[in-house]
User: What shape does this take?
Amino acid sequence: MPVVSESPAVPSPASDQAHALRHDWSRAEVCALLELPLPELLHRAGSVHRRHFDPAEVQVSTLLSVKTGGCPEDCGYCPQAARYHTGVEASKLMDTEAVLAKARQARDAGASRFCMGAAWRSPKDRDIPKVAAMIAGVKALGLETCATLGMLSGGQARALRDAGLDYYNHNLDTAPEFYDQVIHTREFQDRLDTLGHVRDVGMKTCCGGIVGMGESRGQRAGLLQALANLPAHPDSVPINRLVKVEGTPLADDAALVELDPFEFVRTVAVARLLMPQSMVRLSAGRESMSDELQALCFVAGANSIFYGEKLLTTGNPDTARDLALFARLGLRPMPLATVPATVHAGIVESPVGAEPSAAAPSRAA
Assistant: This one.
């Protein structure tokens, strides 16, 4: 019976090399993993997943947008950009008590992590004390805290850490060489700089990207390579599937074909192989995924989802559907006590099921 051959460029889970955390992946190695026969890729990813996590547990986060719309950036996927006509109205920063009420609802519904997202290019220093009060209040409820606020200075990162922030989300979005096809108002290096500030003060990072924006498989490999070769692997890695929101440039691009579902599964599986100890989260785009596709992603190593509330400005499956799917698959929410240093949840005052990545990938995951 034919056996899939092993080569040095495609380390198998059984090899010593596969057990060590690496930060030196080559593009060729990542491409070779993406090109494996799907059953072999799922086997490898599943084996690595089981070595670090209980495969029946899924970490659950809730996302709320504390400040929606009006962003000055031009991210081609984002309905929160002020320059696009998407029906998303700009709002002021939410009141702390209103945020805490949402956090209590999330905790009571089973979320272990709560993330606050604001549609800013970067917060002003005068905004930090207000966000710090939200962080302290959410922390007092017994939830892990996460925020996604745009670019941060070192001082701002330190202030958020001192307020009790556990995780900061800032996505790379896509491969370095494809980045300027999607965003022109900030550089790829700006994202790396913010992640550096967050790591330097000892906070955990939540960092992933969006697939299906017209990039090639090689460019998807470039995104995964960039994430895995960061100085420290992100504690959680949101994998977002593009949500085409009417009025954004990517939604208006008639030539843009929806990403093949199996290609999305491959991306999740390779993220698990490259970053074995990270939480890999199904984020934006999950609303349109079939139960079967989500199940394949869990088999491929995904072990985190957003649960309830709007994912910034795009839909997310409602809580009842998630619970029903968990029951059918024999999955259960990961208890807070066992959640490794990872992930974040978000906040948005809008329809149930928004996602930090589709709506504001740079701010949430």
